Amino acid sequence: MQKLIEILNGESYEDIGLVTETFRNLISISDNESIIEGAIGEYIDQLARLLIYQNQELREIVLEFFCYLSDLKMATRLSIAKHPKILQRLVAILSTGQIKSNSQKSQEQKSNQDKINEKHVKLAAITLNNISQAPAAKQYLLIFEKELFFVAASDETVTPLLSQILFELSIAE
């Protein structure tokens, strides 16, 4: 695990991509969950940084990883919520679902881009919904309540998930 974290801290985006994919594959096996949860402080900054990385494939892998990670223990959900950038970046990804592809691209390229964006938005919404289930994490989500409401009102693909988050936040207040 330590070697993977060292590579994740490196400069080679190819290696970072491979390690990120390895993390995603490791977390899907229940025997690895405690190891990954135990080392969260050692890799969370690097993965948070990759949420805004331009390579959409890599961003998708990181979103899938956070989706799995946010479905584990309440303490893990709280660790994710406490990170100074993760919630902000997940909410930003939600907002990109409302932006349509550039009109200068071909119809097929726009359609593929829209599908990728939609998948990223859904993964971000699922992750935020998982995090909202941790009572102590709700205070960190409250600052994004307005943005979550706007996205829920304008993007029906994630309205049910965001409505659940908003409900959780309303009973927390």
From TrEMBL:
SUPFAM superfamilies associated with the record: ARM repeat
Listed InterPro entries: ARM-like (IPR011989), ARM-type_fold (IPR016024)
Protein name, as recorded: Uncharacterized protein
Species this protein is from: Paramecium tetraurelia
